[in-house]
Amino acid sequence: MKHIINEIQIHYTRPVLSEMVKVVKSSEAEPVFRAFIDEKRIDYKEFFLVMVLSQAQQVLGIAEISVGSTVGTGVNTKEIFQLALLTNATNVILCHNHPSGNLQPSSQDISLTANLHTFGKAIGINIVDHLILTSEGYYSMADNGQV
Fold first, then answer.
1. Which terminus of the chain is more exposed, N or C, with fewer CB under 10 A?
2. How confident is the model over 3-22, as pLDDT tens digits?
3. What is the CATH number of domain 19-140?
């Protein structure tokens, strides 16, 4: 019996450098995420997004990791780091919304961020912030010393 082994190939095309947006602080990341998320649904369902950045803090892309219910969403941590590795990202900004309107991070938000930060550090990917969005505003875990 003959076995067929498939070759694995990874393909990624970096955006054109002159067209890349630079994000250095939370006030720059927030409008980029808002442009990506459906504002008509921000108070309806929880979304979890990831922004991957180059070493120079230029946005390589944004991905929706999950969509949940009014009370939460599952987060596939493996997918976050697959995206970061595929795009050769050095930095990652996490983002999710709270349909309740409460901007304060939950204990689960804090725990998830700490776990992702620890794992990312081990493989050379920095979790630089975790934003929580509501229709009224945003909260930056980095600005509040939680990343």
1. N
2. 888 776 667 777 788 888 99
3. 3.40.140.10
Q: Which helix (H) or strand (E) holds 127?
A: strand 126-133
In tens, the pLDDT along 110-126 reads 999 999 999 999 999 99
Q: Give the span between the Cα atoms of 122 and 55, in whole angstroms.
A: 16
Q: Tokens at residue 144, please?
A: 């509040």
Give the CA dihedral 132, 136, 137, 141, nearest 10 degrees.
-30
Beta-sheet strand order (sheet of 126-133): 59-67, 47-53, 91-97, 126-133, 138-140
Q: For the chain, what are the domain ranges?
A: 19-140
